[in-house]
Design goal:
Radius of gyration: 18 Å
Distance between the termini: 28 Å
Shape: globular
Largest sheet: 10 strands, parallel
Order of helices and strands: HEHEHEHEHEEHEHEHEEEHE
Helix content: 25-40%
């Protein structure tokens, strides 16, 4: 209770506690990823129900963004299942960014690891945020992913920062990590200079066919504690209640909002995982007196 009280105090000092940002997320290129992230259905290494789909056309993405805006989302996030984008692919994505920006929405992309100069091209296209999660503690990272190193993640984050793009970076809870691992991940994010402007905290959705399909679910209160720790250590950042929200009770979500979460994904699907129905979100906001921004 003391932790929640401290987190809520920190939250009130930097944000209106009754406002929650709504973001939409679209998979613009699905499946066939060469990486071996143990939690991901889009890895080509695992037999899952997620198929391979080519990069979407710009017109399709803009139509999806326009629909998301009409439903109340203010930020539009685009994710592609790549190790990293090729130059030809990046050209298409920059067109998407420009056209979504023209709708008056904030833009965010997650494209994997970037090569020299690519972050600058995204900046020139008007990109607001680049998402590149640290996923978990550096000491636990190779238990989850082996096809690249934790330091590779940090290299891309450094390129994003150097280009002047805001950073969206968080992690996934419930990968089999310890509380010490969770604390170390939060500490790493908080000690970035500056910390990420947006911090998504995901509750693992254990997907059939992935190596983590049968992993034990993290305790609900431990999840809330981590949200609180993120808010206390990164008081001015948006803390997003991300994947896994569809299995959270209204009471658990309310605790997360009280502990400092002030951003959600407001869409039917999170890349390949399901998300809460939009009507359910609207009803919860009304019950809690929350205002969408």
């Amino acid at each position: 209770m003391d932790l929640l009280f401290q987190a809520h105090q920190a939250h009130r000092e930097h944000f209106d506690p009754n406002e929650v940002q709504r973001s939409a997320l679209l998979s613009i290129k699905t499946g066939g990823c060469p990486e071996d992230c143990s939690y991901c259905t889009q890895s080509a290494r695992y037999k899952t129900d997620t198929g391979r789909e080519a990069l979407m056309r710009v017109e399709e993405v803009v139509a999806a963004a326009r629909e998301a805006k009409a439903k109340g989302a203010t930020r539009f996030c685009m994710g592609a299942a790549w190790r990293g984008p090729k130059e030809k692919e990046l050209e298409v994505v920059t067109r998407m960014i420009r056209e979504v920006k023209a709708l008056g929405m904030e833009t965010c992309v997650t494209l994997g690891m970037l090569k020299d100069g690519q972050a600058q091209k995204l900046k020139e296209a008007g990109l607001d945020y680049y998402n590149h999660n640290v996923d978990t503690d550096a000491g636990f990272y190779d238990k989850v992913i082996t096809t690249h190193k934790h330091s590779d993640r940090l290299d891309t984050i450094a390129q994003v920062r150097a280009a002047g793009i805001k950073l969206c970076s968080g992690g996934i809870l419930g990968l089999g990590e310890s509380r010490r691992n969770r604390a170390a991940m939060v500490a790493q994010l908080a000690n970035m200079d500056p910390p990420p402007e947006s911090v998504p905290i995901n509750n693992l959705v254990a997907m059939p066919g992935t190596p983590l399909a049968a992993v034990e679910k993290i305790d609900n209160f431990e999840f809330v504690r981590t949200i609180a720790a993120a808010r206390i250590t990164m008081p001015a950042s948006w803390v997003r209640l991300s994947a896994g929200r569809e299995v959270m009770s209204e009471e658990m979500q309310a605790m997360c909002f009280f502990a400092g979460a002030n951003s959600i994904f407001y869409c039917d699907k999170l890349l390949t995982a399901s998300n809460l129905d939009l009507n359910a979100d609207q009803a919860l906001f009304e019950k809690l007196g929350l205002q969408a921004i």
